[in-house]
Design goal:
By secondary structure, the protein is an alpha+beta fold. It is built from 13 helices and 11 strands. The termini are far apart.
């Protein structure tokens, strides 16, 4: 009986998300900000009355939450798990409908949290650099292990790798990034790296969203420690250095 109820619940939620206008509304709310039905109607390209009907459906299924402040009515995602489910569907949907582009804010695509680790363009750059430098070594069907140099890098950040490895989860693994369609670093190691970045104020979390802002300290540290540029649409410093002078050492590259 419980299985039947679960089946019905899943089908109802899937049907609600499947309607394109409702999908656009939900994607627009993924940055954690509440929006009015008028704003969501414009985003979904539907009339105000149609938007109201869609929002009622989403609210009834506990996908969105209504906030009333005086005469104003705002909607937000009901639970962080809704955003996580949408991200997972986006990854699956890339192959099913490659021409569909979710209307999510640019700042979420640049840097955000994914569960408890970092995602977005910046996180993919970090992942690619760690693979390129040989700090992360792929283990087929298991994820990643750290090379000797990788151990030195993460221990140099103050991360207790024994504690990280003892957690009841994968140590380090690729996590497909829906906005980049390439992996970023997930698992316990990815979570530990994000905590270091927050503690050292390399990144700052939005109070009401999953977006991450990179500080001046963060840009300097990411370039110095990883050889990764935290500037948008700029090649990593190490890559620029290799093009300018193949024999240039890492310290020189960091000065670029």
């Amino acid at each position: 009986m419980n299985a039947e109820r679960h089946d019905v619940g899943v089908s109802q939620v899937a049907a609600a998300i499947a309607e394109p206008a409702r999908t656009r509304m939900l994607c627009a709310l993924m940055d954690g900000h509440a929006r009015t039905s008028t704003e969501l109607a414009s985003i979904a390209e539907v009339s105000a009355s149609t938007a109201s009907a869609h929002l009622t459906k989403l609210k009834d299924l506990a996908l969105v939450r209504l906030h009333v402040q005086g005469r104003h009515r705002y909607y937000s995602l009901a639970d962080p798990r809704v955003a996580q489910a949408l991200e997972a569907l986006m990854v699956i949907g890339q192959s099913a409908a490659p021409t569909f582009t979710p209307r999510t804010p640019d700042r979420l695509q640049w840097a955000r949290t994914c569960y408890d680790h970092m995602a977005g363009t910046l996180a993919v750059r970090l992942h690619d650099r760690m693979i390129e430098a040989g700090w992360l070594v792929e283990v087929p069907e298991q994820g990643y292990r750290l090379s000797e140099a990788g151990v030195g890098l993460f221990e140099g950040l103050g991360i207790d790798l024994q504690v990280v490895a003892a957690q009841r989860r994968r140590f380090a693994c690729p996590c497909l990034d829906w906005s980049m369609r390439r992996p970023h670093l997930g698992g316990a190691l990815g979570a530990a790296l994000l905590q270091v970045a927050i503690k050292r104020k390399w990144v700052i979390q939005d109070l009401d969203s999953r977006a991450l802002g990179v500080t001046a300290i963060g840009r300097r540290e990411l370039a110095g420690r990883f050889g990764v540029s935290a500037e948008r649409d700029v090649e990593p410093a190490i890559a620029i250095a290799s093009k300018l002078a193949p024999t240039m050492d890492l310290r020189q590259a960091q000065d670029l």
